[in-house]
Amino acid sequence: MDIVINDNLRPDAQILPFYLADEHTGTPLVRGRIASVGHVADTILARHNYPQDVALLQAEALAMTACLSSTLKFDGIFTLQAKGDGRARTLFADITETGAMRGYTAFAEDTAAVVSVYGVSNLPQIMGTGYMAFTVDEGATGGRYQGIVELDGPELRDAAMAWFANSEQLETTVTSASGLGDDGWQATAMMLQRIATEGGKNPNKADIEMHDDVWHTAKTLMASVKQTELLSPEITPDQLVFRLFNTLSPHVAPARPVMDECRCNMEKVEAILKQLKPEDADDLLDDDGTILVTCEFCKTERRFDTDVLAG
Fold it and tell me: Model pTM greater than 0.85?
């Protein structure tokens, strides 16, 4: 497949901010994001032997995480984590402020099911009941913010919209899809958020009606997007914005990169091993007298001998 470069980024490894404006004044009325992370999902899923429906959900979660994170200003890590009582017990994806992503799903292997590998995952069927947490960890300041919502909707986007409603109290609509095609995994999430009317300007009735009309039209247009459009490797994120919203004065900003990049390192693993009690460490030793540690995210294997434990 030929890769079309947009802002020197792969179209399937970027977050594209955009906004829809008043056609007369150019004033932004609706902000939007498209996160296209198929390349990242493809490399992450290649390291895991997930059932098809679990892989579909993991890919969608990666796209959703990238999309939601881009609406926030943070210097650290944004995390999406769900816990359920279904086949998949833990769904995890996170992204740093620079776009480094990772993710994994813990599931019951003896209850695997095979479903469609294209479209929107069935969240209740895979995870059952539970909750989803959205967390921002500020690395520099140590600050931490978390919002928690119940898994009471049929799709991943329902939890995302509930989070926005509880946290920012701004009208928000989200859609997402993932799929495995001839060119590998594709995963895309798109969101629109109504920009609040600035205080002090006392907008008149005509301005309010115009703002309402633009928001309603934008939601209707986004609802019309097809899964094939979201996941097509032939349609770049900026092309999709102008295809959907050409009647609403769309403007795009520079795209942001996303990449598959784990944060595991040997120093952290050694620090954990040194904290083990001798009897616990003995239980982990292989026949050759070493401990094998495998990163849950990138599946990198590291072996440590007893010298580390003695340290």
Answer: yes
